[in-house]
Amino acid sequence: MNQFLSRRNFILIPTMSILKFIFKPRKVLASFATSEQDWNLSNEDWKNKLSPESYYILREEGTERAFSSPLNNEKRKGTFYCAGCNQALFKSETKFDSGTGWPSFWDSLKDSIETKVDFKLIVPRTEYHCSRCGGHQGHVFDDGPLPTGKRYCNNGLALKFIAD
Ligand SMILES: [Zn+2]
């Protein structure tokens, strides 16, 4: 009997400590995944959430027709939000008329976008997307006005405007 118990403990104790070791980090990972998961939606979920036009821009890196967005002529004071997740991306103070037919900005709000280089038109272009949901917004060029010299050329369908 004694021998049986000690053998049991011999097996149980290391097993328990291994389990503790395995489950602790998992728990931390699970809570991290939950906060990220909010915007880590499947294609199906995004299709249900967005209009077909916005889905094409945000999730398939499409580009709307020039001069097609009413936001192109939006001149009120306010904030432009990601149409996918409502994160604030641009302030009206940085909007300017680039003449391109797409809403254009010379700066984005801090940490609201991330960039990557794409080669869709063979010449490399810098694509940018919402830092929270990954939704494609547009392309950034180096021919914008001062003080940044940047031109964020944004699809209106990827934005929501709320006036102050
Ligand atoms: Zn977003």
Question: Would you give an account of this structure?
Answer:
- With 164 residues, the protein is α+β, with helices and mostly antiparallel strands.
- It has a single domain (3-163), classed as Metal Binding Protein, Guanine Nucleotide Exchange Factor, Chain A, CATH 2.170.150.
- It is built from 3 helices and 9 strands.
- It has helices at residues 2-37, 43-49, 52-60; strands at residues 78-82, 88-91, 95-96, 104-105, 113-121, 123-130, 136-141, 151-154, 159-163.
- It has a 6-stranded antiparallel β-sheet. Strands 2-1-9 form a 3-stranded antiparallel β-sheet, with no helix packed on it.
- Strand 5 (113-121) and strand 6 (123-130) form a beta hairpin.
- The longest helix has 36 residues, at 2-37.
- The structure holds zinc ion (ZN).
- Zinc ion (ZN) is lined by residues 82, 84-85, 87, 130, 132-133, 135.
- Zinc ion is lined by residues 82, 84-85, 87, 130, 132-133, 135.
Task: Supply the key terms.
single chain, about 160 residues, alpha+beta, Metal Binding Protein, Guanine Nucleotide Exchange Factor, Chain A, 6-stranded antiparallel β-sheet, 3-stranded antiparallel β-sheet, 3 helices, 9 strands, globular, binds zinc ion
